Each structure stands twice: as C-alpha cells, then as structure tokens.
Amino acid sequence: MLILSPHQLLFSSTLFLGIFITVSSSSWFMLWMGLELNLMSFVPILTSTSNRYSAESALKYFLIQALGSAFFLGAAPISMLMYSFMFPIILMVLLLKMGAAPFHFWFPPVMQGIQWPQALLLMTIQKIAPISMMSVVLSGANSIVVIMASIFSSLVGGLSGLNQTLTRKILSYSSINHMGWMLGAITFNEPLWIIYFSSYSIVSSSVVFILHSNQIFHINQILVMNLFSKPLKLSLFLSLLSLGGLPPLLGFLPKMMVIQEFINSKASLLWLSILLLSALLTLFFYLRVAVSSFMLSYPKMKMNMSPTQPRLTFTMSFINLSPLLYPLVLIAIY
C-alpha cells in the first residue's frame, strides 16, 4: 500500500495543478507558469532517502527542464525578429521536455536512478502538459519537425532497448518508442493521441505495479521468483505483450487506430513502415523478457513471497484482456 508523506501530498497536488494550468490556459505566460509549477513540484517528488541515486536523477531532470524553459522564454524575442522560427523552437523545447528523440539523452539515466512510482509519473503524467501544448501549436507548416521526431523516437526506442537488461531502462526506451506513435497521432487529431496516451498509461501502470511490488530492477530477478509466482509471471507476460502491442490485448487497439488513420489520410507509407518496424523490435525484447521468465528458473534461489500477493497483480493484469469483452458490450448495447 502506497502512503504519501505530507510533503509528497503537497507537491503532488501542485504537480497536477501545474498540469491543469498548462492545459487550460490561453496565454503563453500562463503556459510557461504551469510548466514551471509542474517542474518545481516534481523535483522534490523524485528525491528519496532510500535511494542514493535519486538526488542525481533529480538534478539531471531539473537542469534539462530548466534548459527547455530558458529556450521557451528565448523564443519570445526571436519571434519579434523572425516569427516563422518561433514555433519550430517551441516544438523542439516540448520534445526536449517530454524526452522524445533526438532530445532523449536525459530520459534513460533519470529513469534508472529513481523508484518505480516516480518512474511511472515520469513516463505518463509528466508528458501530458508538453503533448497538449504541442497539439495546440502544431500546424501544417512545422509538422515536419514532429514527423522527424516521431521517426527518430520510434527507431531509437526500438534499437536501443535490444541490448538492455535493466528493467527501468527497458521501459524508458519503450516510452521513447511509444512517443513516436503518440507524435504520429498528434498530427492527425487530438482525440487520437488522448486515446493512445490513456491506453499506454493503463498498460504501463499494470507493468510497473508488478515490477514495483516485487522490486524487480533486472531481468535476472524475474528468474528467481518462488513457486507461487506462476500467476505473477503470467500477469507480467500479458502486461509486457500488451505494452508491445500484440493483438488482441489492450495495447494493440491504439496502434490499430493510428494505423487506420494513416491509411485513411494517405500519409507517408515510409513513416508508417518505420513505426511498424520499431513496434516489432520492442515486441521482440518484451518477448525476450517474458519467455525467459517462463522457460528459465533457478530452483535453489527461490525468494520468499506471500502467495496472496500474485493474486492482486494477476487480477490487475486482466485489464489487458479487456478488448475481448468489447463484442459483449456491443451486443448488450444494441
């Protein structure tokens, strides 16, 4: 059970307040103020007394976000001289803040030094404000920046995750890959990226909940679970495959909607092919983790775990099978 301390509760409330200000504001100054409030609230949440690397990750995150805010403010005087350069600069600042390629260099190191709950916030909640701002400022004239960032993010996330054995870095590169799909969804319409982001957040939460409840930070730790961990391994297996976008799991539905939008709008076939190739790469290293957890084990290194703990994680992973119930829902409606 997660119990928030008073300072964490305070900074969590101001964190969401900054997101709400950014999403609902109609002026550039209020947008900047919401981003800064969100930044100053998230840095104390990153720090932890039980993790000596969290201070380093918090400092890295603060410096990168402060750099992005400085460029964001610098876009204002530039717009007085060359107005056409203002929006590409703002788009690149937002790409830096959300950790999309080619400005992704800070994201995996920060993820590696923080705890699982903070990592989940960094992968999901902290992307809401930059993505919503990007959907507002995006236009046809500067969409080439988003297209190139989508291609780079999908390739970097797929290729860089192949040689990773640390689970937090695997999920960080997975998040970068999913950013490529979300950037593709932004170029079409706003409801599409909201659906994709919501599905990604749900599936990522199911994966992080399993890894956090068992304190799994390396692939080898999955192999030393006890005899009661078969439901736990099955739930992790379903969650990872759903995160990779394998049908008929929940993670496949938003990808299918993006692919359908690509086909209907007759967008670039090369762009869609790169996204699909990167999805196969991410599915490969998910399968490597999932299959190794089933096929390999160390009987002499069984850890003691409560046999009731996997029941909760197994129940939570059933959210990934929710698309199988959609036909029944349609039958009930009609």
TrEMBL record:
GO molecular function ontology, one term from the record: NADH dehydrogenase (ubiquinone) activity
Superkingdom field: Eukaryota
A Pfam family it matches: Proton_antipo_M
GO biological process, one term: mitochondrial electron transport, NADH to ubiquinone
Keywords in alphabetical order: Electron transport, Membrane, Mitochondrion, Mitochondrion inner membrane, NAD, Respiratory chain, Translocase, Transmembrane, Transmembrane helix, Transport, Ubiquinone
Ranges in a coiled coil: none
Topology versus the membrane: Multi-pass membrane protein
Domain NADH:quinone oxidoreductase/Mrp antiporter transmembrane: 25-76, 80-277
Subcellular location: Mitochondrion inner membrane
InterPro entries the UniProt entry points to: Complex_I_Subunit_2, NADH_UbQ_OxRdtase_chain2, ND/Mrp_TM
The EC number(s) this enzyme carries: 7.1.1.2
GO cellular component: mitochondrial inner membrane
Catalytic activity: a ubiquinone + NADH + 5 H(+)(in) = a ubiquinol + NAD(+) + 4 H(+)(out)
Membrane-spanning segments: 15-37, 58-79, 85-107, 194-211, 232-250, 270-291, 312-333
PANTHER family, A to Z: NADH-UBIQUINONE OXIDOREDUCTASE CHAIN 2 (PTHR46552)
Functional summary from the UniProt entry: Core subunit of the mitochondrial membrane respiratory chain NADH dehydrogenase (Complex I) that is believed to belong to the minimal assembly required for catalysis. Complex I functions in the transfer of electrons from NADH to the respiratory chain. The immediate electron acceptor for the enzyme is believed to be ubiquinone.
Family as reported in the entry's similarity comment: Belongs to the complex I subunit 2 family.
Stated name of the protein: NADH-ubiquinone oxidoreductase chain 2
Organism listed in the record: Stygiocaris lancifera (Lance-beaked cave shrimp)
Gene name linked to the record: nad2
